[in-house]
Design a protein that fits this description.
The protein is an alpha/beta fold. It contains 2 helices and 8 strands, in the order E-H-E-E-E-E-H-E-E-E. About 20% of the residues lie in helices and about 35% in strands. The longest helix has 12 residues.
């Protein structure tokens, strides 16, 4: 079995411009209605960005968490790629967390584990 994430979107090419560098993935040749993103090491799951006609309307029921070692650096990097802050940063039971949205409004979290958080992250 292989885990693949599929993210519905209006413009997979545009969203690939965000998610490929956000994840450190490479973009495969598009195969409409999909754009495939792959971890160059082969360790992470494949992501498929799928063109759909309907817009995103409500909160995602499932979302990715990007676990990082440095909230400030990663937050600045992702904002520079086109993410927006939805909520945070805040302390989520010891986990420094910021809820972000990609350029089409799909939510994801930027998270630093308690072992990596500094006291001022609380």
């Amino acid at each position: 079995m292989r885990l693949v994430f599929v993210l519905d979107c209006a413009d997979p090419e545009r969203l690939a411009d965000f998610w490929a560098p956000a994840l450190g993935y490479r973009r495969d040749a598009p195969s409409p209605p999909y754009v495939s993103l792959r971890d160059p090491s082969g360790a992470g799951p494949q992501w498929l960005l799928q063109r759909v006609p309907e817009p995103k309307i409500t909160k995602n029921r499932m979302h990715p968490d990007l676990r990082v070692g440095d909230m400030d650096a990663e937050l600045a990097r992702l904002l520079g790629l086109g993410a927006t802050i939805v909520r945070g940063p805040f302390d989520d039971e010891g986990w420094a967390t910021t809820v972000l949205a990609d350029p089409e409004g799909n939510e994801f979290c930027l998270v630093v584990s308690p072992e990596r958080s500094l006291p001022e992250d609380s």
